[in-house]
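Chapter summary example.
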Amino acid sequence: MAEYTIVVIVLNYGNKEISYSVQLIGAFEDYPEDYFGLEENRSNLQTSLQLKTARKISEAQLNQVIHEWIRDIKEGLHRTTLRLELSSEVIPIHQETGVTEIDNPESTIPSKFPRRKNPVKKTQEPKEEKENISTKNTGDF
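The structure predicted for these 141 residues follows.
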């Protein structure tokens, strides 16, 4: 079993680096196109990239990422870096629920960091208590 990681540098998102790793075993390591041919694996990659960037990943962009990654895996590389310019289409996060909507409005995925409805109020910090130090000599040396 070997781990393969793709790092996507999002050019129009401040060159932010997004990474995603998979463990490939057996035939999938020799034929990664079979692994990425499974809809569940493609969907997991697309969803993860969308959640990490809050941007829509088109099928064409997903295919580009997968194509580059497969090529590098076949060459024996365990880390692939890809520069990508993503759509400016932001995936909406619902304020009330903290849920991110991706592709299917029927299916929602909770946001990793839900937004608060009300800002956090500052509380008064506790007053610092001074330690009472005795200077009495006990003679124990």
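To summarize the output: The longest strand covers residues 2-10.
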